[in-house]
């Protein structure tokens, strides 16, 4: 298994949308991913195995902070370090773009994602009540140094 990591292109959008639908309850629309290509703040990484997209992650670089929008990996590829490598690429690229810190919201019940972020220096900073579909809280996390 050789997984490649690269910047998202327009041709990737349908496959990224498909991965999104398999990973998340509250999905973005196909159009929202298309808009991200024209969003000068957005950067997305895709992970592909044999030319099949198996995961992706994105962030917005806003002044000197990076806001993670989402990271999704197909269930059959979880536990193999794919999300870790996507996150590594995102942190590296955020630093290149001049970001000094990175933040995100994650479902309070997503133990695997919280563990990934904590293992990568993210700290719990607060809670957004009813953030996801007005029923599940979102945990706010920050990583204050990207080096």
From TrEMBL:
The UniProt record lists the keyword Cytoplasm: yes
Family matches, as InterPro entries: AcTrfase_RimI/Ard1, Acyl_CoA_acyltransferase, GNAT_dom, YpeA/RimI_acetyltransf
Intracellular or extracellular location(s): Cytoplasm
Superkingdom field: Bacteria
EC numbers for this chain: 2.3.1.266
Family as reported in the entry's similarity comment: Belongs to the acetyltransferase family. RimI subfamily.
Alphabetical list of PANTHER family matching this protein: ACETYLTRANSFERASE, ACETYLTRANSFERASE YPEA
Name under which the protein is recorded: [Ribosomal protein bS18]-alanine N-acetyltransferase
Organism: Acetobacterium bakii
């Amino acid at each position: 298994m050789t997984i490649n990591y690269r910047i998202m292109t327009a041709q990737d959008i349908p496959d990224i949308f498909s991965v999104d639908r398999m990973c998340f309850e509250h999905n973005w629309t196909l159009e929202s991913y298309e808009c991200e290509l024209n969003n000068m703040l957005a950067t997305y990484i895709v992970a592909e195995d044999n030319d099949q997209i198996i995961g992706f992650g994105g962030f917005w670089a806003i002044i000197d902070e990076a806001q993670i929008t989402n990271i999704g990996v197909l269930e059959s590829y979880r536990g193999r370090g794919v999300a870790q490598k996507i996150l590594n690429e995102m942190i590296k690229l955020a630093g290149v773009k001049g970001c000094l810190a990175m933040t995100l919201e994650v479902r309070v019940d997503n133990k695997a994602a919280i563990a990934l972020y904590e293992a990568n220096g993210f700290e719990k900073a607060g809670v957004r009540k009813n953030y996801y579909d007005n029923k599940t809280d979102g945990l706010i996390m920050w990583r204050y140094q990207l080096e």
